[in-house]
Amino acid sequence: MNRLNIKKIILKSGKDQSLRRLHPWVFSGAIKKMEGDPGDGDLVQVFDNKGEFLALGHYQIGSIAVRVFSFADILPDEEFWTEKIKLAYQYRLRIGLAESPSTNVFRLVHGEGDGMPGLIADFYNGTLVLQFHSVGMYRMKDTLYNSFSSVLGNRLKAVYDKSKGTLPGKLRSQTENSWIAGEETEINVLENNRHFLVNVEKGQKTGFFIDQRENRRLLGKLAKGRKVLNMFGYSGGFSVYALGGEAEMVHTVDSSASAIDLARENVAVNFPGSAKHEAITADAFEYLDNAGKNYDLIILDPPAFAKRRNVLPQALQGYKRLNAKALQSIQKGGILFTFSCSQVVSKENFRKSVFVAAANTGRSVRILYQMSQPPDHPVSIYHPEGEYLKGLVLYVE
Questions:
Q1: Of 46, 117, 166, 196, which has fewest CB within 10 angstroms of its CB?
Q2: Is the pTM of this model over 0.90?
């Protein structure tokens, strides 16, 4: 890459402070002028109003105009990206995850948390699923594949690009999900010694909700002897852990019939012939309306109610309504696991919605645990927006 061809962004006076604090975003309103007419995905250098170099990143039309991947003035060649991915892999090794005998599914790259904004890479027992959230990262797909191959070696059996639903603008409509290397549609993964069937082509997100691993483990410790309702149950992850924790009964509810079928399969793989589990296709709100007081452990893990800030008020009302229904129906002495995976919903907003729901029911509620995403979904201390998953475990009298 010719350094002379790198385009330039000059910031307005005083708009350089966030970059000096190592925050990896430049908002469009902070830009004074652009040199070289950068387009979607172009590599750009960012300078302050006096001409001092600040950062290097990818330009994108929109509110977040630059996603920074380096605060050093370097040339981002394949060696640079290989080193980035190597550091991300070594981090997962050091936290005991990348080569765990009990778990072979984990997130290898988590966007800004690993210094690679716009890139998600999930490892499923040899299959790597990539999701690109920026044009700049997508345009580097071949380079990144080479880097992943170099770092993972013979551990890497197949690579799937699942970016059609995550890319911005026109590129989304011009892109199809596809295999970059190999093909492993049905994958059997191991998580905390529990087996799960994952279909990376048809499954939600990259195929499995990896980010709930530690929260599922906690649920297993609290499930003994309880009657469990797993709402928005998808492939039955929480249900499998509840059964492993000796729950008395477990009901998995999801509006998707295909998800319910997968939940049944995952329960059967781990607990063949178990009579404790029932999978039900139903709308969550309607099911809770008619659930009665049959459960003393309920999990609420809905899809994101708000993906954009302009729908935040409606999302908070949705969380309030959903949690109120669960709190009204749960048995005395019950436990409620409740989550939000919406990035635009802050911990404070989510907790306030649950607080209002609890207050409206008039029940005594204690917070047992406050939860977030696991360490393979790292949050950079300079980018608090990366903490998207938040959850509460409540004890209800």
A1: 166
A2: yes
